[in-house]
């Protein structure tokens, strides 16, 4: 099966993630759309973070920079999409308390 190429508008970082995930998993057409949305959201969050880093958390009027909300929403969308793909799963450990907990 031929691996899908990453969308050109994604950042270099997210294109690498696209390639890695498509190499590790066989993602159907629907999953490709969800992955695309996840990676677009990641790029949007990074763009907003850079903007806020340059301009500051507060606007000249003393309000929170709107980029803060964009960043928060984009990260949330990224995490939701990754969860929907089942790519947020961590291997479970043994039941009970972690070792060394007292």
Outline the structure in words.
- This protein is an all-alpha fold and 102 residues long.
- The protein is 59% helix and 0% strand.
- It starts with 11 loop residues before the first helix and ends in a 17-residue tail after the last helix.
- The relative contact order is 0.13.
Keywords:
102 residues, mainly alpha
In terms of topology, how is this protein built?
Elements: H1 12-24, H2 29-55, H3 66-85
Helix pairs in contact: 1-2, 2-3
- Main beta sheet, described? none
| Beta-strand share of residues | under 5%
Percent range for helical residues? 55-70%
How widely separated are the two ends? 51 Å
Shape: flat
The averaged pLDDT comes out at: 89
Would you identify the regions where 5 or more consecutive residues have pLDDT less than 50? Answer: none
Write down the Rg: 18 Å
Helix and strand pattern: HHH
Number of contiguous helices:
3
For the secondary structure, the number of strands is 0
């Amino acid at each position: 099966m031929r691996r899908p190429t990453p969308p050109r508008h994604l950042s270099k970082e997210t294109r690498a993630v696209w390639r890695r995930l498509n190499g590790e998993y066989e993602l159907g057409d629907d999953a490709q759309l969800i992955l695309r949305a996840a990676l677009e959201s990641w790029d949007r969050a990074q763009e907003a973070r850079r903007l806020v880093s340059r301009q500051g958390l507060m606007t000249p009027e003393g309000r929170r920079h709107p980029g803060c909300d964009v960043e928060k929403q984009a990260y949330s969308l990224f995490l939701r999409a990754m969860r929907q793909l089942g790519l947020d799963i961590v291997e479970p450990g043994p039941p009970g308390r972690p070792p060394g907990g007292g």
